[in-house]
Structure formats: C-alpha cells, structure tokens
Write a structure and sequence with these properties.
Layout: H1 3-29, H2 33-49, H3 55-62, H4 66-78, H5 81-94, H6 96-119, H7 125-128, H8 135-139, H9 142-146, H10 161-176, H11 180-199, H12 205-238, H13 247-255
Length: about 260
C-alpha cells in the first residue's frame, strides 16, 4: 500500500470517528427540548444585556429583498462544508504542515464543542419562536440534502462551529495564501458566514462569538502542542555531552595527533 493511499484512508477513518462522536452527543441532547428552550432564553437575555440581539434586526432588513435572502442562504449552504472540505484537500496536497494544523484545530475545537453541546443544549432562533424565519428551509432544499435533518443535532446552537470552522479556514487561507486575493478572502469569507448564520435564524449572535472563542482556542492549543513537541525533540540535541576542551585534554589530543610526531 502506497503512503498516499494509507494517508488518505487514515484521514477518512479519523473523520468517521469524529462523526460517530457527534451522533453520540446528538442522541444525548435530542430529547432536551424544554431545557434547550430555557437555555436559549438565557442566551437571549445575555444578548439584550449587551446589545447583541441582532437576529430580528437582520431578518427585518432582509425581509422583502429576495437577492439578500438568497445570498444569505447560498453562503450558509455552500460556504461551509464544501469550503471546509475543499480547503482540507487543497492543504493536504499542497501545504501538509498547514493541513495538520487546521485538521487538529478542528478536532480540538470540535471536542470542546461536543462537551458544550452535551451540557448546554440551546434551541436555535428558527425553532425558538414564530418571529424568527428559517429562510434556508423555506427557500432551499439543497442544505437538507447536504445535511439531512435526521442527522442534525437541532439543539447544538452554542457554539456555532458552522462559523468557527470557517474562521479557522480563513486563517489558513491568510497563512498560506500566495496572493492578495486569497488573504482578503480569508477575512471576507468568515465575516460573510457570521452574517449568514444569524440572518437565516440558524444561530444566535452569541453562538458566533462562542464559536470564534472555541475555534481560536482549538488553534491555540494545537500550536502549543506543536511547540511542546518541537522542544522535546530539540532539547536532547542541545543537551548532548560535548567533548572536553580542558587544557589537559587538548594537550593529550595534541600529543596523539600525527602532526606532533
């Protein structure tokens, strides 16, 4: 088996294990509807306290503007999994070091997210009240094909890894992008996703902020892990015993050298 085939199979296996963990947590939270609604109320109260409740404002702004609604839907549907998967494939083939950093940051932040999903289930706006309109379900079937409702954890609103992982992808674009367009896209793409997840009533503003915090924490932990491993590898080399350079040693080396004979 070639190394490329082994590498590809290993990556698919890791993703499969991550998916199993997600479905396990989904089973834990699926029946917690009342608790998820109560915790959504806490999130909304927090947003109102700090003036962050932009959900209805954005939806009012979009109302009646078909082009903006379709744009928000398109970003939400096609700007996440296709972009994340495409970026991982690109990095795996062209920038292996950046690939491992992004993959591991996603795994770490995903693990943090799973713990939060299991302990703090929150109802998203689209399921919380009739004033919030799920524009994705109303206007498109594409996303439900990409991610069937039966496989989705409906109460995994906090944190928004839909945004958080796009943020990590954007940071990767800025890091390895060789032209200005890639670096600018690395900023525009996650900002557009932040707008889309709130405007489509799939996430609260708080979800976006917490998604950013979890994603950046995952990246920071991965970089710290790599620095630690790098130090462990280089430290033995730095501490290796050196040959004695004392006067006596130099004299004996000189006496035994061919030039002294």
């Amino acid at each position: 088996m070639s190394s490329k085939v082994f590498f590809t199979m290993r990556q698919f296996a890791l993703v499969g294990l991550a998916a199993l963990a997600y479905f396990g947590v989904r089973g834990l939270t699926e029946g917690e509807v009342e608790q998820a609604n109560e915790q959504a109320e806490y999130v909304l109260k927090f947003e109102r306290l700090f003036g962050l409740d932009f959900e209805l404002t954005l939806q009012e702004w979009l109302k009646g503007n078909e082009a903006l609604v379709n744009l928000a839907n398109w970003i939400y549907i096609w700007g996440h999994w296709p972009v994340v998967a495409g970026t991982l494939v690109w990095l795996a083939t062209r920038h292996r070091r950046a690939y491992f950093e992004l993959r591991n940051a996603m795994f770490i932040s995903g693990a943090i997210g799973l713990v939060i999903f299991a302990t703090f289930a929150v109802t998203p706006p689209r399921l919380f009240g009739s004033e919030y309109v799920d524009t994705v379900s109303e206007r498109s079937i594409s996303y439900r094909v990409l991610q069937p409702p039966a496989l989705v954890n409906k109460y995994a609103a906090v944190p928004s890894l839909h945004f958080g992982w796009n943020l990590l992808v954007g940071l990767s674009w800025r890091k390895v992008g060789r032209n200005r367009l890639a670096r600018v896209a690395g900023v525009v793409m996650p900002v557009a996703m932040a707008f889309a997840v709130v405007a489509t009533a799939n996430h609260w503003t708080f979800d976006v902020l917490s998604g950013a915090a979890v994603a950046v924490s995952g990246l920071a932990l991965e970089r710290a892990r790599r620095r630690y491993i790098s130090r462990r590898i280089t430290l033995p080399v730095l501490e290796a015993p050196r040959a004695s350079t004392s006067p006596d040693a130099r004299s004996s080396q000189s006496a035994g050298s061919p030039s002294s004979r």
